[in-house]
């Protein structure tokens, strides 16, 4: 594993400006960031091509690279599993605009998801809508040179894509070379069907596009070392498969909001001790 694979992320910097986050990542010595595209930092409707170009220059001026671009898709009204075709159309357009933004930031990786799913809708119908939507989104990603990392969610959000078997089926049926899998240590542990090792094994090295590397009890999206997950085992799994992608620090617990830099500092120290 390389130092540059470990990504500082702005999820818990929402009480600070985006410029503060970039300065913090630089201060801590990170080389790569995962950029969460959401208000208050980066709501895409507020960023035209000129502002994105300005942001890209600012990131590069600090010696940083955007390793992964992550549009907000939980709070916003986004779902490709929704029964309403108008809702799905808006979601497809949303992802396509963010693919263009990722390319403008010289980022070749972006997170996508199936979104929230209704429990009273036939899951096979919902699965089919996801496949159709990701086929179109995948064509856009291929045209822009952006790899999509599809993130499973827990059962509290969806039942369409929770575990490795569902994810592998989705990738196969979509059939886009640019659609890959995301392995989230927290989600895998909370779902409780796969271990991190079996999840990665089922997906395979060639289709593992991104990792959210966080601790938990089993959930919580905590900084490494703040929970009970066996992250040493997870890291060894990635080493054994010669994983060359990024590990994004999707730290979400509110305990980090007031001093996110401390969490990022401790996370980096945890990682450096083990590579």
Radius of gyration, CA atoms, in whole angstroms: 17 Å
Q: Describe the sheet with the most strands.
A: 8 strands, parallel
> What's the rounded overall pLDDT mean?
97
Portion of residues in helices?
Answer: 40-55%
Estimate the global geometry from the Cα principal axes.
globular
Taking strands numbered 1, 2, ... along the chain, how are they ordered across the largest sheet? 3-2-1-8-7-6-5-4
CATH architecture: Alpha-Beta Barrel
Structure notes:
The chain has 275 residues and is of the alpha/beta class. It has a single domain (3-272), classed as Divalent-metal-dependent TIM barrel enzymes (TIM Barrel), CATH 3.20.20. It contains 9 helices and 8 strands. The chain has helices at 18-28, 49-61, 85-104, 123-144, 164-174, 185-191, 196-203, 231-240, 260-272; strands at 6-9, 32-37, 65-71, 109-112, 147-150, 179-184, 208-212, 247-248. The protein has an 8-stranded parallel beta sheet with strand order 3-2-1-8-7-6-5-4. Helix 3 packs parallel to helix 4 (123-144). The mean pLDDT is 97.
SSE inventory with pairings:
Elements: E1 6-9, H1 18-28, E2 32-37, H2 49-61, E3 65-71, H3 85-104, E4 109-112, H4 123-144, E5 147-150, H5 164-174, E6 179-184, H6 185-191, H7 196-203, E7 208-212, H8 231-240, E8 247-248, H9 260-272
Parallel strand pairs: 1-2, 1-8, 2-3, 4-5, 5-6, 6-7, 7-8
Which features does this protein show?
275 residues; alpha/beta; TIM Barrel; eight-stranded parallel sheet; globular
Give a summary of the structure in a few sentences.
The chain is an alpha/beta fold and 275 residues long. Helices cover 42% and strands 14% of the residues.
